Amino acid sequence: MPSLETDILFDLVCSKRACLEQLCRMGLNQIDLIESDRMTALLDLLAHKQQTLAELQQIERALDPFRGQAPEARQWRSDEARRRCADALRACETLLAEIIDRERAGEQALIARRDRAAAQLQQMHRAGQARASYTSPNPGAGQLDLCSDIS
Q1: Mean of the per-residue pLDDT values for the chain?
Q2: Which pTM does this prediction carry?
Q3: At the topology level of CATH, where does 5-128 sit?
Q4: Where are the domains of the chain?
């Protein structure tokens, strides 16, 4: 059976869905890593995530020629094939919304972590200043002048 343009479209949509599913799983893992303060593992995950995003961009570029087409003008092998592609596209939209929500949650978790770290650093700085004021030598401190200038 000869290949139809819609076969390519369906394959690309399925590839997009697989990428989005992978990004969705990574988003869950990302939040767990942030909450458990595993920053090295988080950086590794983000590097892998960047590769997946690059793959998604490639798929999006391959989908560009289909964006200008009228959907009703496309020739499908069957109504079932059209329905499966539409279902996959809806799943992509749902996954994308989920990914965006997780990204926002991850960002908020990182901001909260940053703020906690800043507060701890400020507290340590104040404690260090207080300790230094008690331990630093101060000329004249601790000495009593018993000389009198009575003439």
Answers
A1: 88
A2: 0.75
A3: Methane Monooxygenase Hydroxylase; Chain G, domain 1 (1.20.58)
A4: 5-128
